[in-house]
Each structure stands twice: as C-alpha cells, then as structure tokens.
C-alpha cells in the first residue's frame, strides 16, 4: 500500500500538487514500518518528484534525509541514487560546488557497484556545470558519455530542465561540428572511462572546493 501511494507522485510534474498527499501518506506508512532502506528509497522518489515539479522546498529535506538514511544503513545500492538526486537539485538551484561533490561521490560509488543510471545522470549534471563554467568542449564530452551509459531512452524531468536551460543552448552556439565531435568522443568511452572523465572534471578543476 505504501509503495502504491508513493508511486502516485511519480507521474507528470504538473500532477505533483494533486498527488503530493498520497506520497506523504506513503512516507508515513514506511516510517511506521521501520524499514530504513525502503524509507530512503521512498524519500528519494518523493524528493525527485518534487524536484521535477519545481517544488525545491519540498524536495530538499526529502533528498537530504534519503542520503542520510542510505549512509546510516550503508546500502551501496541505494546511496548512489540518493546522492545523484541531491546533486541534480543542487545544480538546478545553482549550487554547483555542492552538486559537483555529490556527482563525484555518485560516480565513485557506481564504479564499485556497476550501476549505470546514476552515472548517466551525474555526467549530465556535470555537463550542465561545465556549460556554466564556459567549458563547452568538456560539456559536450560529458553529455556524450552520459548518453552512452543511459539505461532508458527517456530522460527525467530534472535532466530535461538542465538540457533546456544550459546544454541545448550551448550546443546551439557551437559551429563547424565542434559539439558533435566532442560528443562522439565522450559517447565512445567505456563505463569506467566515462566515470573517470566525470571524476576528473571535478577533482582536476577543483569544482567541489
């Protein structure tokens, strides 16, 4: 029942206001059950839905708690989803240093667990940061690497917002196939190479400090 209620908030962003109460009811039920891992997952789903709807005030505490619980229970499978979601929220809010820190951590965790979805999202978030920093070539490589390791054709609303606001305009400003060339270079990277590209973007350039 709790899962069914929580799933109600994962529809379209426009429906979040109407379905938020169901998500909150689901969270309360999971809290009462005492299952900490499921609570972290439920909080992450709720926070993601709130972020997608632009309700950052609702998203932030849910995502912070999702990370805290995943750290507490030391669940290496759940934690990367928690950190990448919080990173996406940070970058949407313009807090690029905090976002870069979360993305680098996500990539390091996924290097051990082999989970591709958080990697694709983290690389996309880093591409948005690269655009803000004027590093268009790096942004296109990160974007290509993200697309190479995406599990699904569909892209989540937070990433779509970053594409509309930052990545797509940066690509439109490029000429003579520069974006396509760098994107192809990133798109040809292996899973481990793509992770290394993202981590190096943060550490070598001191984006998180």
Characterise the protein shown here.
It is a single chain. The protein is mainly alpha-helical and 209 residues long. Helices cover 77% and strands 0% of the residues. It starts with a helix and ends in a 6-residue tail after the last helix. 47% of the residues are buried.
Helix fraction? Answer: over 70%
N→C terminal distance: 43 Å
SSE succession: HHHHHHHHHHH
Question: What gross morphology would you assign?
Answer: globular
Portion of residues in beta strands equals under 5%
Radius of gyration: 17 Å
Secondary structure tally, helices? 11
Major beta-sheet overview: none
SS class: mainly alpha
Low-pLDDT stretches: 1-9
- Mean pLDDT, nearest integer? 90
Q: Count of DSSP E strands?
A: 0
């Amino acid at each position: 029942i709790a899962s069914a209620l929580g799933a109600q908030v994962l529809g379209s962003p426009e429906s979040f206001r109407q379905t938020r109460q169901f998500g909150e009811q689901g969270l309360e039920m999971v809290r009462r059950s005492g299952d900490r891992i499921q609570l972290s997952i439920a909080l992450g789903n709720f926070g993601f839905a709130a972020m997608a709807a632009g309700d950052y005030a609702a998203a932030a505490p849910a995502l912070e708690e999702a990370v805290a619980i995943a750290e507490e229970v030391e669940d290496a499978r759940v934690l990367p989803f928690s950190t990448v979601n919080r990173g996406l929220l940070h970058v949407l809010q313009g807090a690029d240093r905090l976002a870069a820190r979360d993305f680098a951590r996500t990539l390091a965790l996924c290097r051990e667990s082999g989970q591709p979805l958080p990697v694709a999202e983290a690389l996309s978030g880093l591409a948005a940061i690269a655009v803000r920093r004027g590093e268009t070539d790096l942004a296109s490589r990160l974007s290509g690497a993200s697309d190479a390791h995406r599990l699904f054709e569909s892209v989540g609303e937070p990433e779509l917002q970053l594409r509309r606001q930052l990545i797509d305009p940066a690509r439109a400003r490029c000429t003579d196939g520069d974006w396509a060339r760098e994107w192809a270079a990133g798109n040809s990277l292996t899973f481990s190479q793509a992770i290394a590209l993202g981590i190096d973007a943060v550490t070598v350039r001191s984006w998180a400090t």
